[in-house]
Design a protein that fits this description.
CATH class of the largest domain: Alpha Beta
Oligomer: single chain
Mean pLDDT: 91
CATH superfamily of the largest domain: P-loop containing nucleotide triphosphate hydrolases
Structural class: alpha/beta
CATH topology of the largest domain: Rossmann fold
Strand content: 15-25%
Largest sheet: 9 strands, mixed
Strand order of the largest sheet: 3-2-4-5-1-8-9-10-11
Order of helices and strands: HHHEHEHEHEHHEEEHEEEEHEEHH
Number of helices: 12
Low-confidence stretches: none
Distance between the termini: 33 Å
Shape: globular
Length: 343
């Protein structure tokens, strides 16, 4: 018997989890779910036809920055892909009415709503759920939000009239995500946690994810959402929400990817692609006019477009599917996978 087989035979784990690394189902068989927005897929995986996998995705930012909407977009995509799937929605803010789910065309009969009032309630219930979930069960979890959850000590102190500072909250957060993370990875469960940010102190303050280091260490992906107004004349017609990739296993950190949401028309499916296509040399700009570039010859085509005409699969799919654009995205956004050590 080879040493490899001997080690596998002698393991105390008899549930099939121990395997040769190259064949490990926990590392090499991640189920990826694409959203309907290519720019969001790029922010998640570096590819317009990529998406999200199991593990923790943290979406943080100030109020009214579309954080929950990104989570619901991912929920919708997961439930569409998995007809037998179920979503578990932990709610501490109660700011997401059913009408918001209806906007994303989510079948709310497949969503379990769990109101929580403190961090310990969340920890005990989510661990009870995850412990009973089996490999192969299709579950998607959203917590909205972890940033607004008080610890039980903080609640008890308030009820008792005590004003002592709560020193347990960060430890409870670290405990929660330390316990949850292995279940998410081993049972192929994606989870989105909505969070808040605060400004760091100093001459040049930056946005910091609240809740301490525990969540930061456990998360596979962390987005910090920024926002820019979009105007038609002097009127605000919508917003560009900027996905700042703070941490990712797949996408280069500090990447910035815009997603446009308009008051009329909602989320723009083709958000952010024009700037990428210009930078990649797939489109040429002359003043307010744009022209496609023949990627085989490099010649600029005669037909001219306005920016508002860049809509529809017929226009964007040839660009998204081109090897030239895929190479550009990989070089600009994807975390390098070249050898660290050279002979």
């Amino acid at each position: 018997m080879s040493l490899m087989n001997k080690i596998r035979k002698n393991t105390t784990f008899k549930d099939g989890r121990v395997d040769v690394l190259s064949e490990s189902k926990f590392l090499n068989q991640k189920d990826m779910t694409s959203t309907s927005i290519p720019a969001v897929n790029i922010a998640l995986s570096g590819s317009p036809d990529g998406g999200f996998t199991s593990g923790l995705t943290m979406i943080a930012g100030p109020s009214k920055h579309f954080k929950t909407a990104f989570g619901l977009l991912m929920m919708k995509s997961y439930l569409d892909k998995n007809p037998d799937g179920v979503a578990l929605f932990y709610d501490s803010e109660f700011g997401t009415p059913q009408a918001y789910f209806d906007t994303f065309q989510i079948d709310t009969s497949r969503v379990i709503h769990v109101p929580v009032t403190n961090l310990e309630e969340l920890k005990f219930d989510i661990m009870s759920q995850l412990s009973d979930i089996e490999v192969g069960d299709k579950l998607f979890i959203v917590i909205d939000s972890v940033g607004n959850l008080a610890s039980k000590k903080e609640v008890d102190d308030a009820e008792s009239g005590k004003s002592a500072a709560d020193m347990t909250r960060a430890k409870q957060f670290k405990s929660l995500f330390r316990m949850v993370t292995p279940h998410l990875s081993m049972k192929d469960i994606p989870m989105v946690a909505i969070n808040h940010t605060y400004d760091s102190q100093g001459m040049f303050p930056t946005k910091v994810v609240s809740g301490g280091t525990g969540m930061y260490y456990s998360a596979d992906t962390i987005w910090i959402i920024g926002r820019q107004q979009e105007k038609t004349g002097t009127e605000i017609s919508g917003y560009n929400f900027i996905i700042n990739v703070e941490k990712s296993r797949y996408v280069r950190e500090k990447s910035k990817i815009p997603v446009s949401v308009r008051h009329e028309g909602g989320m723009d499916t083709w958000s952010g692609l024009l700037d990428m296509a210009l930078d990649a040399g797939c489109i040429n700009q002359s003043g307010a006019w744009y022209q496609l570039v023949d990627l085989e010859t490099g010649e600029v085509q005669e037909k001219k477009y306005r920016s508002k005409e860049f809509t529809g699969k017929e226009f964007w799919n040839p660009i998204l599917e081109s090897d030239h654009f895929k190479k550009y995205l990989k070089e600009r956004y994807v975390v390098g996978n070249s050898a660290i050590m050279e002979e």
